[in-house]
Amino acid sequence: MAKTEAPKPILGTSPLRKEGVAKVLGATRYIDDIALDGMLFGATVRASIARGRILDIQFEQKDDLGNPIDWSKFTIVTANDIPGENTIVHLTKDHPCLAAEFINHPEEPILLLAHREKAMLPAAVAAVKITYEEWPGVFTIEDSEAGIERAKAGDETGVIWRGHGHGGGNNTFKTYCMLKDQTEIPESVWAEAAYIVEGEYRTGAQEQLYIENNGVIAECVVADEAVQEVTVQGSMQCPFYLVHALELVFNLPADRCRVIQVETGGAFGGKEDFPSVIGSHAALLAMKSGRPVKMTYDRAEDMVATTKRHPSRTRHRTAVAKDGRLLAGEIEFVIDGGAYATLSPVVLSRGVIHSPGPYDWPYLRVDGRAVATNVAPHGAFRGFGAPQSIFAVERHMDKIAGVVGITPEEMRRRNFLKSGEKTATGQHLSDPVDLQGLLTRALREADYHRKREEFARTNVGAVVKRGIGFASFFHGSGFTGSGERRLNSLVEIELNAEGMPNILVSSTEFGQGTNTILCQVAAQTLKIPYDDVLIAQPDTYRVPNSGPTVASRTAMIVGKLVERAAEQLCVTLVGSGFLAEGYTGEEFKDGAKRYLAANGALKASVRYQAPADIFWDDEQYRGDAYPAYAWAVYVAEVAVDTRTYQATVTDFHALQEVGKVLHPKLAAGQIEGGVAQGIGYALYEKCVWQNGRMANNQMTNYIMPTSADLPPIHAHFEEVPSIHGPGGAKGIGELPMDGPAPAILNAIEQATGIAFGEIPLLPEDIFARMTGTDGAEKLNPDVMEPAIAAAVGEVGD
Amino acid sequence: MRSNPAHYEMVAPATLDDVLALLAHAPGVHTPMAGGTELMVALGAGRLATRRLVSINHLRELRFISTDDGLVTIGSGTTFSDVRRSAVIAAEFGLLAEAASWTGSVANQNRGTLGGNIVNASPAADSPPALLAYDAEVRLVSVRGMRTLPYREFHLGYKKTALEPDELVHSIVLPRVYAGWVGYIRKVGTRNAQAISKVALAGLARMEGGRVRDVRIAAASLREIPVRCLATEAAVIGREITAETIQAARVAMMREARPIDDIRSSAKYRAAVAGNLVEEFLRRLL
Asked: What is the DSSP letter of A556?
């Protein structure tokens, strides 16, 4: 038989998304498109205070309009109905599934209701009247710290979280100390430094705003008055997280808790930890009613009650040499975790490890702390702590440059990490790292030098002031520290009856391209057409646990496992003689079918093997924090209109080195979407908090940028293959969230001459600084005369 | 959806006369609904207090743009999309065409009506500053007949209008007298599309011999109703556009603006930006 040419490489090309056609045709069925026979609809009765104790619960016999409510037609679940433990387990068990007595945030779930008619639920929820003993709330990082301080003097009224036997301490979920080389900063370094530069930087909460709200359908098998099995299908990232939550709530073994991911309309981390809450709730209603129960949140409930990005405060104190070289740094990084620990310890860890930026620090100490407040728990969101600490360090680098009197570019060039050097955790950078080259190319792509010079000239007297700025940064791929070893992920590929390989993973598709890239990896490894590779719907009864779909780990870690499983499959088929070397796609199918006829089934199964040279020491908090890093330089151009004080991003260049790009279109899409989300984070998206509750939980008031607010976004790639990922790929998903905010504020500093240290930066904030908050000084002479500013001061008095 | 649709009732009489008869029969019982772009949001959020609705969305009698030598008359059921597509409005009432393009999304513009926009009476509504600048009149209709009043007298207080319970807005009338006037309009919203105004300003002026012969300035989101800024107008009328005139106009604007702090912005910001927009308008007259 004549040898045919090997198929062209599929990695590095952009085939159609596996689920793309169904989405485009509107044939995709999301959770709210699915109805089961006899299904009820569920709703949540939530607290109306931020902190206190439940005294009494009454069910009013009439709704607000005077219509009678027939409570016998409702299924009602309270904490007393929970057959197992009253907890939503993540890293700890402090987070109750339903509040039994104590309230720790204003959206705390207390009761669950279900009814045949969805329209009956809102009035019934409103007719549950709960009375409380209300206690003063703790709403900010500063409130929480004050509570800790007062407790030291014996006043515990400001302590809302006590460790709960899960580590941590008063109002403190977790602390980390990252000490480079385990060496404290010598006093002499501070004494001899040419400059000591201090700065404080803050970031706000951010809502994920996936298009599809959280939603699930639960079913429960009850026999002999005991729950035998629970099934939850829904919109989610991490099916096995929900299995774990259900095991505890229902006191069932894992193999009696089935979780199925249905097509998911966006997630961004917002469906990492939260589906454990809504999934457990729906399952409890299914248990109590004996019917399938659907729970879907509307936008207002999803925004007010589910997780958001952790607000943060970072303080830098830096010793700098005369020429701008970093000598030593102290970084204090604090995040607001909300009412319960949830994922805050790991968010904190990623934030701490990314806080030094891609720089060589001779001495460095980073103290990280996640604190408790009486707001709904903050959770996973693309970037996972890194956007917060990177914002701080990249603003601080520009500040230091200003103090030293060198350009922001020169400041970075004198301090960049290089191949062969060690990171702050002591990780030896053995892979090629070329930040100098990345910076050079990014600034060239953005025409940075010419524009910076031009704007400096044209801004004098201009009504619209322009600026250009950049940020350089890295993002670690995969779970932090020893996380991947603990996950111990498993991936399988089986052959279906037609002889087509079917990938079995719990890694989920939610718009980012999991299905497509994993099939590309298998197709390339098996040397068969992309269309001949299938991927199974994530159903925990069918697929192995390949870990959660988070942390920029799917392409690199899971992709590598798919590559190895495909190799194993190929070796088996060829080794057993059913397939000859140099086979075509058709020959593969024929050989596979013959193998199945002879042997019944074939399933390749591979488990994560930590690279021998990757090691992390949890005790010392040092070692190889991530198997690989993506490196990037982002350049933002802005215009600040001094009549409206609105900063607009007018152009954006994003250059990254992410190893091999598996699918250029999806990769560029990830960058463009992430930059858009980063622009929202920097300039638009502000959670307005009132007594711990998000007050602007509507898309009209929580301002996400539209296409009319966004600039052209140019995604550029450098490809330096990594041994850790399939075909050389590294992680990409979170990276684009890290760079936009500091690059934009650095650009705004050129435009306005004002060093802003806090995001979101809204026109009202720019106005306050340009005119002076008292309205009487620091006027921008191009815009306002003193008499006007005085008049401003009078308005609203 | 936080409302139970079973708690609501909607009727849709076939003609304008039938609707007016219904309103006359039981004044104040039914809330008229045209495009529904405001009421349906309230329904979804579970805060639509009125339970009985009468649809006027289908009334062809209210959806027209007619012109004669002196006037352009816009039926109250004319949608923002209709306004944007009208050649005569684009040519002679550019500020209104521009304002219509601000509202919501294209889908909102396809349903939302000019009449609904002014009857809903939000101080932040998009069309009122332009209508005030053009010194529009409104025609109100009921079984009792038609009456006309200047649009600047239509808004009485926060969400309160001169409309009687048995009346509908029939049409908005614009005088075709603005050839040679210089127009200015700018919305400062929370973002560039799908936004509610933090401040919006419309300006219209006629210069003669280097001086301001005639001027109209109107604003949204600066008071509890959309307003003509009469003190600011007074500060510039009859004057040359000099630094002193601009300064006087800005001070007048600061004094007559009474904005509030709310979830979208602050009073100080709104007042300051209003001053800046006045300056931008006046500089355009140079």
From this structure: I
Q: Which residues of A touch B1 (CB under 8 A)?
A: 118-119, 298
Instruction: Tell whether A703 is within 8 A of chain B (Cβ).
Output: yes
Chain B residues whose C-beta is within 8 A of a chain A C-beta are: 1-7, 44-46, 188, 190-196, 198, 247, 250-251, 254-255, 257-261, 263-269, 271-273, 275-277, 279-280
Instruction: Give me the pLDDT at residue B172, please.
Output: 98
CA distance A255 to A266: 28
Confidence of residue A773 (pLDDT cuts 50, 70, 90): low
CA distance B36 to B113: 9
Please answer yes or no on whether A119 and B6 come within 8 Å at the CB atom.
yes
pLDDT band at A614 (very low <50, low <70, confident <90, very high): confident
Angle, CA of B160, B164 and B166, to the nearest 5°:
135
pLDDT for residue A6: 57
The answer, yes or no, to whether residue A486 has pLDDT greater than 70, is: yes
Q: Does A644 touch chain B (CB under 8 A)?
A: yes
Q: What fold, for A312-480+622-752?
A: Aldehyde Oxidoreductase; domain 4 (3.30.365)
Cα–Cα distance, A318 to A327 (Å, whole number): 8
Write down the architecture of domain A20-28+489-607 according to CATH.
2-Layer Sandwich (3.30)
Q: Which of A467-481, A608-622, A747-761 has the lowest mean pLDDT?
A: A608-622
**Cβ–Cβ < 8 Å for A81, A284:** yes
Q: Where are the beta strands (DSSP E) in B158-210?
A: 160-161, 168-175, 182-189, 197-208
Angle at A371 between CA A367 and CA A372, to 5 degrees: 175
Give the nearest partner residue to A795 out of B1, B257, B263, using CB atoms: B257
CB within 8 Å of A752: residues ≥ 6 apart: A465, A467, A640, A766, A769, A770
What's the CA gap between B63 and A740, in Å, rounded? 47
pTM of the model: 0.96
pLDDT value of position A7? 65
pLDDT, one tens digit per residue, over A27-74 is 999 999 999 999 999 999 999 999 999 999 999 999 988 999 999 999
CB contact under 8 A, B251 and A784: no
pLDDT at A772: 86
- Cα A601 from Cα A578, distance rounded (Å): 13
| CATH number listed for the domain at residues B60-175 | 3.30.465.10
Q: How many CB atoms lie within 10 A of CB B114?
A: 31
Q: What is the pLDDT of residues A431-462, one digit of tens each?
A: 999 999 999 999 999 999 999 999 999 999 99
CATH 3.30.365.10 location in chain A? 20-28+489-607, 312-480+622-752
Residue in B closest to A773 by C-alpha: B268
- Residue A782's pLDDT is 37
CATH hierarchy code of domain B182-284: 3.30.390.50
A781 part of contact set with chain B, CB < 8 Å: no
Residue extents of the structural domains in chain B = 5-55, 60-175, 182-284
What's the pLDDT score for residue A780?
Answer: 37
| B30 to chain A, closest Cα gap in Å | 18
Q: Which CATH number fits domain B5-55: 3.30.43, 3.10.450, 3.40.1000, 3.30.70?
A: 3.30.43
Q: pLDDT for A200-242, tens place per residue?
A: 999 999 999 999 999 999 999 999 999 999 999 999 999 999 9
Looking at domain A34-135+214-296, does it have CATH number 3.90.1170.50? yes
Query: Cβ separation of B193 and A709 shorter than 8 Å?
Result: yes
* Contact between chains at A707 and B193 (C-beta distance less than 8 A): yes
CB neighbour list of residue A147: distance below 8 Å, 6 or more residues apart: A138, A157, A158, A159, A160, A170, A171
Residue that is written with structure tokens 């990492």 in the block: A272
